[in-house]
Every structure is written in structure tokens, then in C-alpha cells.
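Annotated sample (chain length 337).
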Amino acid sequence: MAEEAKDTKKIILSGIQPTGVFTLGNYLGAVKSWKNLQEEYLCYYFIADLHSLTIHIDPAKRRAQTREAFALLLACGIDPEKSLVFVQSHNKCHAEMGWIMDCCSQFGELSRMTQFKDKSAKHPDNINAGLFTYPALMAGDILLYQADYVPVGADQTQHLEFTRDVATRFNHTYGEVFKLPEGYFPKAGARVMSLQDPTSKMSKSDTNPKATISILDDEKTILKKFKSAVTDSEAEVCYREGKDGINNLMTIYAAITHKTMEDITREFAGKGYGDFKTAVGEAVAEELRPIRERFAALMEDRAYLDEEMKKGAERAAKIASKTLTKVKKRVGLLLEK
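Output written by the structure step:
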């Protein structure tokens, strides 16, 4: 990556947890736009495996999912020659910075985080300290790289505001070190809902296999899931209040075909929901086919993946260590000679 690019391009940073294969929602809501962003910005993308420790996963499964998530980013078009792609735990700066950010975070503001409340309700048997201090580690992730922008959805806005608050507090207490990151709201991002409960967001953790499209699902599976998608008792393909199922399918179709809701309504005027579901399923299957094929090829080439992970970790550590060294100096830690 040319040095001069670093002087002219703004930095975007984003991470995704290795807690299962990306859904169509992850892809259309975030990952698809990441591919396009790397042409305009200096992009840093990481697999947030340290964050995944807040929930219990079999260790072997976590390792496998981390490798798969890394391969999926590349399969989705993230180019390691254009973007920095790495595994979070491969750069020790994250854990160190996370602890320092813990000590700059107030108990009260952490306790007000809605995601902590939501996850505590979902996992009452595992309300661990990491779940509580998760936003501080996330703040460290962002601030280590002096990111200008962080792509955020509605459920992450509070975490970004927390990061800005912690950075402001640190800068005020110890002197200016951190850039205050701003939210990046991609225009093309689509909020994809469950195919079985269109009032809920599509989620990797959904226990109903019919509700979620995996980006590695084959064409037959994709078509079958869309055919069973929940709609309504009407027969009109149009976007309006009260038609959650159809609105969701139209959102997906629009995100892939780049057609407007008006275009879609005209295209399916006089046609039934069956025709519309088939069209959406075929469009999704065609969109995901090259990703599935590329992923399969990458998973066969373990040496290539290991080499790219190593290179990414080395580059990430080089960038992050500069910020971490400044931070350690400012807070009064005695640096190694």
C-alpha cells in the first residue's frame, strides 16, 4: 500500500465477529459496502475474535470460525493489497489498549449500554465482565488506528458515542492523542429482516433455519427459503406500512438489483407473490454464487490464508503500536528500553 495514499485517504475501520457464517443481512448491511469503500478509503477490517469470547463457543469451533471469517472477507471482495485485513487477537495491542480504555470508562456509562442489557437478558447464565466492558475494548479497537470513520448500524451508534466520550475524556486528562471517529452510514446498506419474522433483524443466532440466508447457502437452499418467506394475505408487491414481509423482500431485491421500490412495484404489477419470491431468490443466489465458489477455493489453500493473516497482523501491529506507545507514555507507564 503506497505511503502517499495514507496521506490523502481517510481511514475506515470495522470488525466482525467470527460467530458463524455471515448472513445475507451481514452481507447487504455491511460487508458488500466494505468492498466498495476500499477504493475510496484506507480500510482496516478485522475479525473480532476477542469480542467473541463473551459467549461460550467450543475452542476448536472458534478457531475454525475465525479462519472461515477471514476467508469470507476475502471471498466477498476485500483485497489484502488494498485493505488491511487481520485477526484481532493476532495484534496484542488490542488487549493492552482495551485495559487502558477500561480504566478510562465509567461504571455508570457502561451500565447504560443497551447491548449489555439485551445480551444479559439472552444469556442470563453467562453475564460476564467482558460483556460489561465490551464497549471499552471496542473503543480501543477504533482508537488504536486513529480511524476517521466507523461504519455503524442503528445498534452500534451508542458504542460509537461511547468511544468518542472516552477519547474526549482521555484527551482532556492526558493531552491530545486520539482522533474522534465519526459514524459512516453507507447509502447502499440494507437492513435485512428475518424471513420468518420480518419484524426482527436477520441474525446468525436465529434458531429457525428458514429465517436466515447464509452467504454460503447453495442456490437450491436459497430458493427454498425464499419460497417459505412470510408475507401477507394480499397479493400486491408494494412497499408500505403493515407489509413487513414484502417490504423486507423488496429491500433485499433493491439492494442487489439497485432498482427503486417504484421500479419493483411496476415490475411485479399483476403478478403473485410466488413470482416475486422466486425472482428475489434467484437474484440472491446469483449474487452469492461467486462468493461461495471463491470461499471454497480459499479454504483449500490453507498456506495462503495463513500467510495473509501473518502479513495483516504484522501491518496492524506496526500501525497500532505507534498509538499505543503514545498512550502508555501519557498515562505514565514505564516503557521498555
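Annotation: The mean pLDDT is 91.
Annotation: DSSP finds 13 helices and five strands in the chain.
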